[in-house]
Every structure is written in structure tokens, then in C-alpha cells.
Design goal:
By secondary structure, the chain is α+β, with helices and mostly antiparallel strands. It is built from 5 helices and 3 strands.
């Protein structure tokens, strides 16, 4: 089971990146679960769900994998997951458009996987940039 100290550290990192990414209008909830408790976590460290209507971001963390993570890796991973909140509208729109096409299910799946690969590549690039900014305590100010 995940220790209270690690849970508290995780919540603190989530709050830090929530402020950094200007996600203050969202309520972010995180839950630690095993694959047995949540099948979505199979082969995943975490799953993020965004409910824009209610301004809520749900972060489900695989407690077994999370227990193995070290501090720096944990921070980068949380940042990665929260950055998904910036792409959810594009992802949903892309899924809808692809599904409405007359492509075969195989081709639709291929396009959706390709979009997810591109999304992850861009998010990982942003993680590298933002981690460096965070390392040097650069504060991102909104206009």
C-alpha cells in the first residue's frame, strides 16, 4: 500500500503544477488504485479524465507503479498528466471526426493511435521545457 508521506507529496506536486499551469479554475482530484480496483490502469501509470463542464480533472494513479517512483520522476509524470488537460478538446474532436468518416475500424484505430503518439510527443517536449523552467523557479505570468 502507498504510504501517507508519498500520497501527501503527490498532492503537493499536483497543487504546484496546477498553479504553474494556471489550472486554478479546475478542481483536481487524485485517487490511488490498483489494476484490480480499476481496469483502466492496466499497463498504465495513470489515467486522466477531464470533465470540462464541471471544471474537474480526475487523475487515477496506479498505486503499485506509483510506489516505485522517485521524486523527480514523479514530478515529471504529474506534469505530463496535467498537460493532457490542454489537449482533451483536440483529442475528442479528432476522435469524433475519425469515427464519423467512412474509414474501416482498423484505419480509424490507426489514425487515433497516431494522434495519441503525436500528442504524447508534444506533451513530453513541453514537460522537458517546463521542468527546466520550474528548476530555475521561473514564474509564468499571465497577461
Amino acid at each position: 500500500m502507498l504510504r501517507a508521506k508519498k500520497r501527501k507529496a503527490t498532492k503537493k506536486v499536483i497543487k504546484h503544477y496546477q498553479r504553474m499551469l494556471k489550472l486554478d479554475e479546475y478542481r483536481i482530484t487524485s485517487r490511488f488504485k490498483t489494476v484490480g480496483e480499476d481496469e483502466d490502469l492496466k499497463d498504465q501509470y495513470a489515467v486522466v479524465e477531464i470533465d470540462n463542464k464541471n471544471k474537474t480533472i480526475y487523475v487515477k494513479l496506479n498505486s503499485i507503479e506509483w510506489a516505485r517512483m522517485k521524486g523527480r520522476e514523479m514530478k515529471r509524470f504529474i506534469l505530463h498528466e496535467l498537460l493532457h488537460s490542454f489537449f482533451w478538446e483536440l483529442s475528442n474532436l479528432f476522435d469524433e471526426v475519425v469515427i464519423k468518416t467512412r474509414f474501416s475500424l482498423r484505419k480509424q484505430g490507426g489514425y487515433i493511435r497516431k494522434f495519441e503518439e503525436i500528442e504524447h510527443r508534444k506533451i513530453n517536449h513541453l514537460v522537458r521545457i517546463l521542468s527546466k523552467l520550474d528548476k530555475y523557479k521561473v514564474v509564468l505570468k499571465s497577461r
